[in-house]
Write the structure tokens for this entry.
Amino acid sequence: MTVTSFNEAQQEQLKEIGAYLRQIREDKSVRIEQITAQTLIRQAFLEALEEGRYEDLPEPIFVQGFIRRYGDALGLDGVALAKNFAINFFLLDSGNDGKKAQKNSSIHIPLAVPYAVLLTVASFILFFRLNPKTPADSVAQEQKSKASTQTTVSPPVAASPTLS
């Protein structure tokens, strides 16, 4: 079984749209090389689109763009044509998709922990850089200021009574 990014509904839509684009191109007698030059889409992709060979095409979102540009090149409403190709289908045939989704969603929760730790460390570093006083420095500064006030202020000398 070939692994493809298109589900069954998309494959059917792709065949119908591709056949329609081919029919319009042939009715207008436009060569596929002209469409390739005008849309800048590889000819191999255009041929795969026309023939409904979804296995040779890139992801559905790109194919939707190809359809729009191809339709515009043929003078059709490319936007409306591209909207007919639904890209929002979910693949329902694989049973492991739910497990993968659960595993991927839990990856984001642990990433918050290193960010929180990094933020906390950065906050502490910033705090101590902006406030360089440490408790030991403040005690030493207080003792120094007490000593300087004691040396600058001389105690009053009491006048001694003189006996004459």
About this structure: The chain has seven helices and no strands. Residues 8-83 form a domain with the 434 Repressor (Amino-terminal Domain) fold (CATH 1.10.260.40). The longest helix spans residues 97-130. The radius of gyration is 40 Å.
